[in-house]
Amino acid sequence: MKFNGRYQRALVQIKRLCYSGLDDRQLRNEIIGLLHPITKSDLCCFQTVDPATGLITSNVREGIHDHAVSDSEHVFFEHLYFEDYLPAYRRLLHSGFPVNRLSDETSGNPGKAYRHRMLYAPIGLDDEIRAVMHAGKNMWGTMVMAREKTASHYSEQDAWLLAKLAPHIGAGFRTAMQQRMAATEPEAAPQNMDIPGLLIYNPGGYIESYTAAAVHWLRELGELHPDWCRKELPVYITQVVSALKRSQSMLSDHDFEIVPELARHGRNGRCITIKAYEMSADEDKDRKIGIILGPAVHRDLIQFQTAAYGLTPQEKAIVHLVAKGNNSAEISAKLSISTHTVQEHLSNIFDKVGVRSRREVVKKIFLANLFEGAKSL
């Protein structure tokens, strides 16, 4: 599609921003500022996601800021994200065109959509456009924009602009994560606080108790609202709780793919995992949810590291075998590929990770951000 002058300028400016070394929050704020004069959106939610699970790790919101939006966000995380948005994002990721418009889905009548009635109509919004920010085959972020009913629907140019930008923004998010990993120093980890923390989530929608270690990790992940236990739960807590509920409901095939855990990088760059599980109780209705927060271990980080470097499934398999000490002939036999193909894959892995040897690959992928033993290789 041929863009007009404003769209073309925004495309060039945003593409440059994606490779300017900004952290993901700065990048999102800058992009929203450049898109707003063109898209004229009344609400924009721009998220980073865990590439392993698709769960939202942080959200930048611009536009409507009031109590009604907070209520809509509860509906979004509690019901719509796993029922509608996450399956749609996965389809878009593999469709070849990572953007869709609500007006297209509903033949020009957004009010026919369930998410319109649940999410947008109550706050006076109408049409929506959403996009997946990807790098390779991994989803690194999502964007949702909506307009008031009095505005025109999003145009084909709007959709094509976001589609053109999606891989560059995804690459920008991935680079931001790599920079955080590279900047992390082992000495930055608090030596006396490696124990996991525990939150107890009440089915009524609030945290009823917590450990001191949990508060430590929450603060490492960002500022805490004074009423964070009840009215201002961090978005990643809401995400894992909703993921657990949805994974247990098994209402659709997509529910089998939902994992109630995610990983985020803290302020000092360290990777922190958040995991939810159902606690035992005499009656189902009394069951509370336990949420564990703590430093990531090897198995938690591997998916992040391989996604960050854009490794293919075959390259990931080879990296795992290399880490176990297999030589090229053994890898060849186990994967049923030639030794020449193994060497080609290793060469590609070295280029992507930025190393020159198998030893360096193992160190960078398996030990990056792990403070215990990180200097032993």
Walk me through this protein's architecture.
- It is a single chain.
- The chain is α+β, with helices and mostly antiparallel strands and 377 residues long.
- The protein folds into three domains: 5-183, GAF domain (Beta-Lactamase, 2-Layer Sandwich), CATH 3.30.450; 191-299, Beta-Lactamase, CATH 3.30.450; 311-366, Orthogonal Bundle (Arc Repressor Mutant, subunit A).
- Helix content is 47%, strand content 19%.
- It is built from 13 helices and ten strands.
- The strands form two sheets. The chain has a five-stranded antiparallel beta sheet with strand order 2-1-5-4-3, with helices on both faces.
- β8 (261-265) and β9 form a beta hairpin.
- The radius of gyration is 22 Å and the shape is globular.
- The termini are far apart.
Pick out its properties.
13 helices, 5-stranded antiparallel β-sheet, HTH luxR-type domain-containing protein, Beta-Lactamase, transcription regulation, transcription, Sig_transdc_resp-reg_C-effctor, disordered C terminus, 10 strands, Arc Repressor Mutant, subunit A, 377 residues, globular, DNA-binding, alpha+beta
Note the topology.
Elements (H helix, E strand, L loop, with lengths): L4 H14 L5 H16 L3 E7 L6 E8 L3 H29 L3 E3 H4 L8 H7 L4 E11 L2 E11 L7 H28 L13 E6 L3 E5 L1 H10 L13 H15 L11 E5 L5 E8 L10 E7 L2 H11 L4 H11 L4 H8 L3 H15 L4 H9 L11
Antiparallel strand pairs: 1-2, 1-5, 3-4, 4-5, 6-7, 6-10, 8-9, 9-10
Helix pairs in contact: 1-2, 1-6, 2-6, 3-5, 3-8, 10-12, 11-12, 12-13
InterPro entries: Sig_transdc_resp-reg_C-effctor, Tscrpt_reg_LuxR_C, WH-like_DNA-bd_sf
Protein name: HTH luxR-type domain-containing protein
Organism: Paenibacillus glycinis
